[in-house]
Write a structure and sequence with these properties.
The complex is a heterodimer of chains A (about 300) and B (about 350).
Chain A: H1 3-30, H2 38-56, H3 59-83, H4 88-106, E1 120-122, H5 132-136, E2 138-140, H6 141-159, H7 161-171, H8 173-178, H9 183-209, H10 221-231, H11 236-259, H12 265-285, H13 287-293
Antiparallel strand pairs in A: 1-2
Chain B: H1 2-23, E1 28-33, H2 43-58, E2 62-63, E3 66-67, H3 74-85, E4 90-93, H4 99-108, E5 113-117, E6 126-131, H5 133-147, E7 152-157, H6 162-178, E8 183-188, H7 195-207, E9 212-216, H8 221-229, E10 232-237, E11 248-254, H9 257-269, E12 276-279, E13 286-288, H10 296-311, E14 321-322, E15 328-330, H11 338-342, E16 351-352
Parallel strand pairs in B: 1-2, 1-3, 1-4, 4-5, 5-6, 6-12, 7-8, 7-9, 8-16, 9-10, 10-11
Antiparallel strand pairs in B: 11-13, 14-15
Helix pairs in contact in B: 1-3, 2-9, 3-4, 5-6, 5-10, 7-8
Classes of the chains: A mainly alpha (about 300), B alpha/beta (about 350).
Chain lengths: ~300, ~350
């Protein structure tokens, strides 16, 4: 395996959780709900996936547990913000705090236990293509799911009736409600989809990225995905590109150090965040496109008139 | 945002500490502050094992509440102060970054005794303690030089503080004593605890052909990468053999229990004094994990070096040593003094990295 392939493989591993969690948050935000609890849902997914894999002996059961944990945990957020109309920002932050605490407690028995790695699925024929074959067609299930999710979410939002309704709710919940669209029910589903994606991203962390459980192992990646959604101006393919940009910069700065380029490591570590700011400046420059893409009801509570 | 989460966790832990104090007012409270989780499998866990040893030894006479995941920074000061107010008689703050916070709180609570781990600022009621990790790292360097097929190793480093720089230099000194052409690559991850990033750094190094890894970060992720990629690595702070049964050559293991026990004895006897303790292999505060996955002659060499360091025959920083740029630092036979080591901000010759500005 050449160094080029090796770098590509690590970039994919580092980018996949960012792409998946950001896609989930994108759907949630497109429905008009701002869930800042991605970090908390992700870490819950990570601990549940690790525990599930340990107990059952199968990483695939782990994946299911991770998705379920993320979705169930987001249900708490949905109930508080959609049914009880609690403040979305505060509830989202609380969700992160709660997730970090609860996962630490649940995971205590699993610390420093050797993990179970999710195996590769080799796609016949395609995997024999030089370079690309090894990198793209000898991957784990979660990587394939991440690609399917990008395509699926993109199709759903812009090509399906249900997606049109979801975007309509995000842009104006009052009008959508007047048209007879089920605002609260759709938002519940969107939030849970976001939670399931964050849970899957967490499962990737504890089953693929570093197959182990360590407290706080999400290490701020949930926050990066929130920035990524804005960075991508609520577009699935841009989330994909942005996720890989972030992953690539993180990995390349480590390789740059290993190659001995004399650039300060602190500067290199800062690059992904600097890139976010630059892109935010570029996309905000054209105010009209930003406004078109931003869901107009984002973060606003919906209380149906009785 | 994560910071707030940790503070919240810390406050909750403090509340638990206070409520248990109410039940047992006759017990002497000896308190601990950890930067990570008490089960991190690395640095904080090593301190917690020390705490458990003390608790077992003194039984009903003391109680040992602890705060974990306390971030280094302003929150640390609040956490330590809360412990001081809750009736702790002796407080161990176990991470370098707690230094200034401990100094401030110690000044406010002259009747409470403080001990700061791995720092250099002390006071009438503030002692410092540290372990001569560099003694162990010298042995790691020697083993690396014998084990590596391409005359080099990679060092996954956290932050460019003297403790870390000293470790890098000692490793290089050990390696050079065996193989003068040995090159040590350093990769800075700017974190103590991020399994993903530590693993990425390890992978980057392995992909570039490194076959021996060592780390000064807190998780077992680099060891795990070494195991998967079939190369060798050294454990840090705790024996990491579970993460790398085929990869781990040995580990430097922090065993703080003996020191903690000595200090708690002094507290109960009323003989506690502010001291600056810096023990090493000889005193048992630092131990080497079993030498495994290496040929017998390498193992023998490692054991001999360990014995020589204990007897004082070998000191990792004995001249002639040049600084990285070739300027002389120590003359032949001259040994580095502790003050220079504790403030070390330069590389020795042979380290293949540029030290980040501090």
């Amino acid at each position: 395996m050449s160094i080029f392939e090796a770098i590509l493989l690590t970039v994919i591993t580092a980018s996949t959780p960012l792409v998946i969690a950001a896609l989930g948050e994108l759907v949630t935000e497109r429905s008009g709900v701002l869930n800042l609890g991605v970090e908390g849902m992700m870490i819950m997914g990570a601990v549940a996936a690790f525990a599930g894999a340990q107990i059952s002996g199968s990483p695939y059961v782990g994946i299911v547990c991770g998705i379920a944990a993320g979705a169930l945990f987001s249900l708490l957020f949905a109930f508080l913000t959609l049914t009880l109309v609690a403040n979305q920002v505060a509830t989202g932050l609380a969700l992160t705090l709660l997730g970090l605490g609860v996962s630490g407690m649940l995971g205590e028995a699993y610390v420093s236990m050797p993990g179970i790695r999710l195996g590769e699925i080799v796609i016949p024929v395609l995997s024999d293509i030089p370079v690309i074959g090894h990198v793209l067609f000898r991957q784990d299930l979660i990587f394939y799911l991440s690609i399917a999710l990008v395509v699926g979410v993109s199709w759903f939002l812009f090509r399906s009736r249900a997606g049109l309704k979801l975007r309509a709710i995000g842009d104006s919940h009052a009008s959508a409600h007047a048209l007879g669209i089920q605002v609260i029910r759709t938002r519940y589903l969107a939030v849970m989809f976001g939670g399931a994606c964050a849970g899957l991203a967490g499962a990737q962390l504890s089953l693929v990225y570093t197959p182990q459980w360590a407290e706080n192992m999400s290490a701020g990646r949930g926050w990066i995905t929130l920035a990524l959604v804005v960075f991508a101006s609520w577009r699935p393919w841009r989330v994909f590109a942005g996720g890989y940009l972030f992953g690539a910069v993180t990995i390349l700065q480590l390789h740059a150090q290993a190659f001995g380029l004399g650039i300060p490591s602190q500067f290199l570590s800062m690059l992904p965040y600097a890139a976010t700011i630059v892109v935010l400046i570029i996309i905000s420059h054209n105010r009209r496109t930003t406004l078109i893409n931003t869901p107009a009801s984002l973060g606003k509570a919906f209380v149906p008139e009785r | 945002m994560k910071k707030y989460a940790l503070t919240l966790a810390a406050s909750a832990a403090a509340v638990i500490g206070i409520s248990s104090a109410a039940q047992a007012a006759d017990k002497t409270k000896v308190c601990f502050v950890y930067v990570g989780s008490h089960t991190d499998g690395g640095y904080s866990q090593a301190h917690d094992l020390g705490r458990q040893q003390v608790q077992a030894e003194f039984g009903d006479k003391i109680e040992t509440p602890y705060l974990e995941n306390v971030p280094e920074g302003p929150d640390a000061e609040r956490a330590i102060e809360r412990l001081a107010r809750s009736g702790c008689k002796l407080i161990f703050t176990t991470s370098f970054g707690f230094m200034d916070a401990t100094v401030k709180v110690a000044a406010k609570f002259p009747k409470v005794k403080f001990e700061h781990g791995t720092g250099y600022k002390s006071g009438p009621n503030l002692a410092t303690y540290n372990s001569r990790f560099y003694e162990g790292r010298y042995i790691l360097g020697q083993i690396a030089a014998k084990t590596s097929k391409n005359h080099g190793a990679a060092y996954i480093a956290s932050f460019p503080i003297p403790e870390v720089v000293m470790g890098i230099n000692s490793f290089e000194q050990g390696a050079k004593s065996i193989d003068p052409s040995f090159k040590l690559k350093v990769i800075w991850v700017n974190t103590w605890f991020d399994p993903g990033k530590e693993a990425d750094a390890a992978k980057a190094m392995v992909d570039q052909g490194v076959d021996v890894l060592t780390q000064h970060t807190d998780t077992t992720a680099p060891m795990q990468v070494a195991e998967e990629r079939g190369i060798h690595a050294f454990g840090q702070a705790s024996d990491m053999i579970a993460a790398g049964p085929k990869a781990q050559l040995t580990a430097i293991v922090d065993t703080w229990g003996t020191y903690y026990s000595k200090r708690v004895h002094a507290l109960l006897d009323g003989t506690w004094k502010s001291e600056q303790s810096w023990d090493g292999l000889k005193d048992g505060i630092l131990k080497m994990a079993p030498y495994t996955n290496m040929p017998d002659d390498v193992k023998k060499m490692a054991e001999e070096t360990e014995a020589k360091i204990k007897s004082g025959e070998v000191h990792p920083f004995t001249g002639p040593i040049n600084k990285q740029d070739g300027t002389p630092w120590l003359k032949a036979g001259e040994k580095a003094d502790d003050g220079t080591l504790l403030g070390m901000n330069f590389y020795v010759e042979g380290v293949d990295d540029k030290l980040p500005a501090q």
